[in-house]
Amino acid sequence: MYLETIHLTKTLPCLAEPGKIIVIGKPNRSLDLVIPYLATLPGVLAYNPETLTLTFRRPSGFLTLYPDKVYLTQITNEQEGRQVLTDLVAAINATWEHRSELVAVTRPKRAPNHLDIWQLLPRTNCQACGERTCLAFAVGLVQRTRSVDECPILLRDTAFAERKETLEAML
Ligand code: SF4
Asked: Ligand 1 centroid vs 163 CA: distance in angstroms?
């Protein structure tokens, strides 16, 4: 067994999806050793082996793993969040037990598309970044012609701090 629990430590409103929440969990031990093996699983959107940040697409929303925390978007309520964290512990332990059959990933993967990125933007279309829409800004991020810091909402509004961190991990 690699870890016992991931405690739900915090929830935030999911501003882009009214009524949904963002769930943040803390594993009872660092995920640093298992993340390179988890990066072999299907559904990986982005992986940075230097920072050990790994993002998966979920049926709705995203799951991002850091060595010291887990971040889930578009969760219906705390009950669902706790269940997803419990399922994640089982998946992490199963991956760790089968690690001898896996080849740890050492290369970065960056494959988000502009719609993946757009889902994490504020989606207000306020045009403060100089683009007409958040979708246009998302295309610029994927094409590397814009940077996350050029959205002043993401940069200054603390409600978007976690989402900004996830975007930076994905890009
Ligand atoms: S500044 Fe941010 S919120 Fe406003 S349009 Fe640009 S990407 Fe969207």
From this structure: 13
